[in-house]
Amino acid sequence: MKNLIIYSFLLLSFAIFAQEKDMNLPKANDEFADKKYAAAEAEYRISLSNNPKKAIASYNLGNSIYKQNHGSEALLSYEKTIKIATERPEKQKAFHNSGNIYMADKNYSAAVEAYKNALRNNPSDEETRYNFALAKKMLKDNPPKKDDKKDKKDKKDDKKKNDKKDKKDDKKKDDKKDDKKKDDKKDGDKKDKNDNKGNEDGKPKPKPGGIPKERVQNLLDAVNNEEKKIQDKVNAKKVKGKPMQTEKDW
């Protein structure tokens, strides 16, 4: 099996990328060549901070991090390289190394996709092609386990349905209680009406905040009286203003 796994973990080729003048990048490359990966990482980070769009700095940073056995963090640098790279060779190498990290983590489905994307950027790379075939074989021999998250989601959905059903049942019970309260209130109102018949004036008491019928009638009478006064004044003016006819005494 060891003979089959010949995929390289890193494609270390610095000369393939066009480099602008950068004091930190060459120094980082020297540190990397001397296997001083932590020092190389520091220099690559400075280079990248000064040139955020420089794909080679991001790619080499990923390599130095990976050499320190931090695959997940290195993967972030490769993803950044893929995002900012403008040349196919840059993207191909980043995808290839991403696939290697996924293979090491036994995430074969992700590895297959990474190698596939690498081949799209460089179909002639035989090493990537071999790794792609190997990743597909490993995926076939080790199919993904059933997603436990899906089972948990189904159980969660069932629980939600049951909770909704319980809420509906509780609502029905509450509605029944409300109906009973309304019936009791109606009976109480009837009782109050019967009790009001025993008042001295023989009339029900007004509700709090309501206007008694007597007051309403008084207001209406007052309005009618005012209208009558106004009408009388108008009529008086009409009579006063009418010219009187004087008959001659023949």
Short description:
With 250 residues, the chain is mainly α. The protein contains nine helices and no strands.
Q: Can you characterise this structure?
A:
The chain is elongated. Helices cover 70% and strands 0% of the residues. It contains 9 helices and no strands. The protein has 250 residues and is an all-alpha fold. The protein starts with 23 loop residues before the first helix and ends in a 9-residue tail after the last helix. Mean pLDDT is 76; it is low at 14-19, 196-210 and 243-250.
Core attributes:
mainly alpha; 9 helices; disordered C terminus
Give me the secondary-structure topology:
Layout lengths: L23 H10 L3 H14 L4 H12 L4 H14 L3 H17 L3 H14 L4 H16 L6 H49 L16 H29 L9
Helix pairs in contact: 1-2, 2-3, 3-4, 4-5, 5-6, 6-7
Write the element-wise H/E pattern from the N-terminal end onward: HHHHHHHHH
Q: Specify the number of helices.
A: 9
Strand content: under 5%
Described by strand count, sense and barrel closure, the largest sheet is: none
Structural classification: mainly alpha
Q: Estimate the mean pLDDT confidence.
A: 76
Helix content: over 70%
First and last CA, distance? 152 Å
Number of beta-strand segments:
0
